From TrEMBL:
The keyword Transport applies. SUPFAM superfamilies: Periplasmic binding protein-like I (SSF53822). Belongs to the leucine-binding protein family. This is Branched-chain amino acid ABC transporter substrate-binding protein. Residues 27-371 form the Leucine-binding protein domain. It comes from Vitreoscilla filiformis.
Amino acid sequence: MQVKFNVIVAATAALLAGSLHAQEMVVKIGHVAPTSGGIAHLGKDNEFGARMAVDELNAKGVKIGGKAVKFELLAEDDGADPKQGTAAAQKLVDSKVNGVVGHLNSGTSIPASKIYASAGIPQVSPSATNPMFTRQGLKTTFRVVADDVHLGGTLGKYAVGTLKGKTIAVIDDRTAYGQGVADEFEKGVKGLGGKIVKREFTNDKATDFTAILTSIKGAKPDVIFYGGMDAVAGPLIRQAKQLGIKAKFMGGDGICTGELPKLAGGAMEDSQVVCAEAGGVEGKQKEGMEKFKADFKKKFNVEVQIYAPYVYDAVNVLAAAMVKAGSADPAKYLPVLAKTTGYQGVTGTITFDEKGDIKNGALTLYTYKGGNREQIAVVR
């Protein structure tokens, strides 16, 4: 009898467990970034930010519409390549994700955004700064960082007004991000009466910059701006020093990483480089960011590169909209997401405007000393 009783108890427990599992709603969050290739360190940083958010949401036991929820992260690698990016986007759409965070690059985010929009799936970018991303007339695109109009323009004004650059050279990698931020930088320079003496371009996989830098050296610029990512900026800085170029070096968020000094092979001198990150926290918000960085280091045993905190906030903004709407159905929570106002994230306050851009987005200016990033100022 005891054996039979034990079997009955076990069977009942299994049925109850199965019933509870059946009542649990699975919410799929897609994430796309380059986790292979030259900027894999940045892609992995972003993906870790997403994993951290998902793990914490599951630990909290979030409910949507009164139902217990299990969040699942579907992570894809786009290799920073537009074609691979659209393939990854279609894969997530076919997997019926409830929302997407990414992509990292503007060049992959923009073509992928059309695929998500056609499927009605919200996409929140933590790092795509090209203005076009939110200016296509799509209702599903959002971002939690300032765009290149603000970032590039601010750096251009800083080059002329603060660094006193009278002659300035500009190089870009011809990607949507690199060319876009370089164009806005040039506008900022010219707006303050600065002079662009050279405008050159390379590509995002180049390693030899001798011809470009030799041409630029002849123009004797005070400042060189590079629109692109740190994997190219590092060797570019190293080769510039080898050629005896003394100009200050500037760039956007793509070069503003902890890895840049290593990628430059020790060629960076103190305060030689000035860059900007499309985001920033001040005052009491710094405590939350420092806690995030400490928790991140403890969980993944690596330092935050740039945008992991923004990915973390983007995932949580999606979840908050679902909870408020009482549904994870994109059609039902999308209108709520669009009206996000005053969300307090680790990166600051998030409010979307009518285009899906963050209102009053901050920028943080940095330089490098002793091989480490050092904050100059937060500007809006």
